[in-house]
């Protein structure tokens, strides 16, 4: 056994300090956040990163995988890893439903995308009669199983699926109206709903939950790995009674949510 001079113990084993995958991923995150690698920029190749960080190929590959899982990178076969371009649509929950805040015969989302320079496409996927699920029935103050009209939409922003919206209405209230027919309603459904009810709509209550998507939701919204979703449930009332429940699902990386709240 070798001994250190003056000691009875073997010398410590010395090895070249290697960057871990976590350390490399953290360093690259900082460089992305600082703007060194701007949205859309091509990252250095794996070979260049191996040389720069003095790490093994597998370590660099793992670090890049972490960044893809975080939703920061997208990979293109034969080209490399690119910083993901993220342009968020601002959804103003305080004023978006006020008719005075948007052009006539324009839905809230139409007004938002026009003002912010996005392009929107609306796909009406289904209009159907369905028994009320227990959670929707509770929010609409009806019995579970009571007939509802559901309208399901897929909304595309700048050519990419960005959100889904499933709206539920008591069938007894909207029977015979355009709400129950498979057609897009110009200006949105709320003007039609108010006309059918014969009274204005009142306040809306929104509840948001951030979570990771299910496999089906990932496919529906074409989400890159590591991208969370925001689930939003909105209940609209008229004269104190609920008249519509809408379940939204947003690509969280492509939206931001703004609310103005009173402070005493």
Report on this structure.
β1 (73-76) and β2 (80-83) form a beta hairpin. By secondary structure, the chain is an alpha+beta fold. It is 27% helix and 30% strand. The chain has a 6-stranded antiparallel β-sheet. The N and C termini lie far apart (75 Å). The protein has 2 domains: 21-83, Winged helix-like DNA-binding domain superfamily/Winged helix DNA-binding domain (Arc Repressor Mutant, subunit A); 89-258, Chorismate lyase (3-Layer(aba) Sandwich), CATH 3.40.1410.
How are helices and strands ordered from N to C? HHHEEEHEHEEHHEHEEE
- Shape descriptor reads elongated
The helicity comes to 25-40%
Total of DSSP H or I helical runs spanning 4+ residues: 8
What's the β-strand tally? 10
* CATH topology grouping of the largest domain: Chorismate lyase
Strand order of the largest sheet: 4-5-6-9-8-7
Average residue pLDDT: 88
Q: Radius of gyration in whole Å, from Cα?
A: 26 Å
Low-confidence stretches: 1-17
Fourth-tier CATH superfamily name of the largest domain? Chorismate lyase-like
- Could you name the CATH class of the largest domain? Alpha Beta
CATH architecture of the largest domain: 3-Layer(aba) Sandwich
End-to-end span in angstroms? 75 Å
Question: Which SSEs are present, and which pair or pack?
Answer:
Blueprint: H1 21-34, H2 46-53, H3 57-69, E1 73-76, E2 80-83, E3 89-92, H4 108-116, E4 120-131, H5 134-140, E5 147-157, E6 160-170, H6 171-174, H7 189-197, E7 204-211, H8 215-221, E8 229-238, E9 241-251, E10 255-258
Parallel strand pairs: 3-10
Antiparallel strand pairs: 1-2, 4-5, 5-6, 6-9, 7-8, 8-9
Helix pairs in contact: 1-3
């Amino acid at each position: 056994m070798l001994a250190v001079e003056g000691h009875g113990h073997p010398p410590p084993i010395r090895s070249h300090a290697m960057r871990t995958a976590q350390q490399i991923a953290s360093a690259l995150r900082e460089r992305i956040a600082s703007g060194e690698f701007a949205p859309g920029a091509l990252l250095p190749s794996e070979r260049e990163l191996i040389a720069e960080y003095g790490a093994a190929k597998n370590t660099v590959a793992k670090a890049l995988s972490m960044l893809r899982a975080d939703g920061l990178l997208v990979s293109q076969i034969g080209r490399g890893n690119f910083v993901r371009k993220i342009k968020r649509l601002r959804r103003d929950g305080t004023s978006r439903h006020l008719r005075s805040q948007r052009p006539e015969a324009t839905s809230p989302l139409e007004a938002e995308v026009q003002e912010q320079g996005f392009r929107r496409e609306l796909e009406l996927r289904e209009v159907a009669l369905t028994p009320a699920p227990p959670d929707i029935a509770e929010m609409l103050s009806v019995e579970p199983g009571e007939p509802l009209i559901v309208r399901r939409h897929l909304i595309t922003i700048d050519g990419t699926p960005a959100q889904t919206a499933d709206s539920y209405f008591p069938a007894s209230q909207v029977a015979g109206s355009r709400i129950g027919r498979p057609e897009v309603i110009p200006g949105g459904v709320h003007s039609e709903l108010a006309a059918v009810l014969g009274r204005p709509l009142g306040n809306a209550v929104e509840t948001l939950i951030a979570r990771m998507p299910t496999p089906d939701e990932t496919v529906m919204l074409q989400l890159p790995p590591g991208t969370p979703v925001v689930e939003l449930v909105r209940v609209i009332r008229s004269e104190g009674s609920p008249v519509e429940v809408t379940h939204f699902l947003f690509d969280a990386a492509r939206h931001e949510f703004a609310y103005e709240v009173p402070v005493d």
